[in-house]
TrEMBL record:
Protein name: Histidinol dehydrogenase
CDD domains found in the cross-reference section: Histidinol_dh
Record keywords: Amino-acid biosynthesis, Histidine biosynthesis, Metal-binding, NAD, Oxidoreductase, Zinc
Residues at which substrate binds: S238, Q260, H263, H329, D362, E416, H421
Binding positions (Zn(2+)): Q260, H263, D362, H421
Gene: hisD
Length: 431
């Protein structure tokens, strides 16, 4: 069960090193196997995809069955609960509204002597979403991956997801993809699905970027194909940190810690509090609430291995812990959460106040839930519209403008030993 660690005595009991160790995965055999899969898909296309689908998903598909048909999508709509469909549409609207505010525009500026400088902003042409199957089939992730791309103006959005029993795709996933504007859906999962989108096959188009969650095989495949196309990030296990003072509600805090622990045995749920009473109360609530969770066994392993309740002297010390761990999700269950914001340097998404549960961010609030994990919030941002655009610099000089700087350009070029660069300027002013 989750342990209470008192940092007020100056000792951390190795908690920071233990949390960091979650992302230190030994790829070894996985890397070699995935390299083979990726290489074969690159070389053999559809035939390799079909072979691996039968091998790993136990589904035999013909080439013409790889792509989901309009009839299958129509059938899926008939299987999805109407209330869930309305929730999906409400979430889609909120996500779209939030990401609309992130859009960037091309710009130009005119300088002296007719110099024109600028930046051209263009969306990528084709984007691929990877969606896991089975128990990890999350329609919310489809929305979070597709909507910022749609807002950015990506030309075509496709999706790859493994087929289930009878060669069918999860109906909720199909419906969500359709609602989010995904144009083509393919029944292919795992490393072979990533490779198919990265290189293209006779049926599946080559994409410019792949986004979406997946297991270690998917993550490894994304590492391998990076460079042939772009990827979003290599996501690690999920994590939450709650900062609480004596105004926090222990039942709320416990529930939010449990919500992350049910993801994965490697998930991390950490409470940092200035109150010893809150620490003890939350621990008691966790033990009580865990008993009624269907994923109790997974939750308990997660909390035992990577959970912690950390007691600190004050909120300044709490901020130091936050910034050291750089959590994916950060909840501020304190009296004045807005005043604490200035102390937060590293966090993926920040939830302010006792009623801003992390679950809001996962589903319906609007900000993206594809977030940096394993301390990468120190240098990564949530998935956003900028991830689906590319920028070109614009430079236009007149003869008069070039003449003003020609000697400086020549000096730079010759200092670097690049005479042809210097001559490219000189030739424009020779008789």
């Amino acid at each position: 069960m989750i342990k209470i660690i008192d940092l007020r005595d100056g000792r951390d009991s190795g908690i920071f090193e233990k949390l960091a160790s979650r992302s230190q995965i030994e790829y070894g055999d996985v890397l070699r196997r995935v390299e083979d899969i990726v290489g074969n898909v690159k070389k053999e296309g559809n035939s390799a995809v079909i072979k691996y689908t039968e091998m790993f998903d136990k589904v035999s598909l013909k080439e013409e069955e790889l792509k989901v048909t309009p009839e299958e999508i129509e059938e899926a709509y008939g299987k999805v609960d109407r209330n869930l469909l309305e929730a999906i549409r409400k979430a889609r609207e909120n996500i779209e509204k939030f990401h609309e505010k992130q859009k960037e525009k091309s710009w130009f500026s005119t300088e002296d002597d007719g110099v024109i400088l600028g930046q051209l902003v263009r969306p990528i042409e084709v984007m691929g979403i990877y969606v896991p199957g089975g128990t990890a089939a999350y329609p919310s992730s489809v929305l979070m991956c597709a909507m910022p791309a749609k807002v950015a103006g990506v030309g075509k959005i496709i999706m790859a997801t493994p087929p289930g029993e009878g060669g069918k795709v999860n109906p909720v996933i199909l419906v969500t993809a359709c609602e989010a504007g995904v144009e083509e859906i393919y029944k292919v999962g795992g490393a072979q699905g990533v490779a198919a989108m990265a290189f293209g096959t006779e049926t599946i188009p080559k994409v410019d970027k792949i986004v979406g969650p997946g297991n270690i095989y998917v993550a490894t495949a994304k590492r391998i194909v990076y460079g042939y196309c772009d990827i979003d990030m290599i996501a690690g296990p999920s994590e939450i940190m709650v900062v609480a003072d004596d105004t926090a509600e222990p039942a709320f805090v416990a529930a939010d810690l449990l919500s992350q622990a049910e993801h994965d045995e490697l998930a991390s749920s950490v409470l940092v509090t200035t109150s010893e009473d809150i620490a003890k109360s939350v621990k008691g609530e966790i033990e009580k609430q865990a008993e009624r969770q269907p994923r109790k066994e997974m939750i308990l392993k997660s909390l035992e291995n990577y959970g912690a309740i950390i007691i600190v002297d004050n909120l300044d010390s709490a901020a130091e812990v936050v910034n050291r761990i750089a959590p994916e999700h950060l909840e501020l269950c304190i009296e004045d959460p807005f005043s604490f914001l200035g102390s937060v340097k590293n966090a993926g998404a920040i939830f302010l106040g006792n009623y801003s549960t992390e679950s809001l961010g996962d589903y319906i609030a609007g900000p993206n839930h594809v977030l940096p994990t394993s301390g990468t919030a120190r240098f990564f941002s949530p998935l956003n519209v900028s991830d689906f655009i590319k920028k070109s610099s614009i430079i236009s000089y007149t003869r008069k403008a070039l003449e003003k700087v020609k000697d400086d350009v020549i000096l730079f070029a010759e200092s670097e030993g690049l005479k042809a660069h210097a001559d490219a300027v000189r030739v424009r002013f020779e008789e």
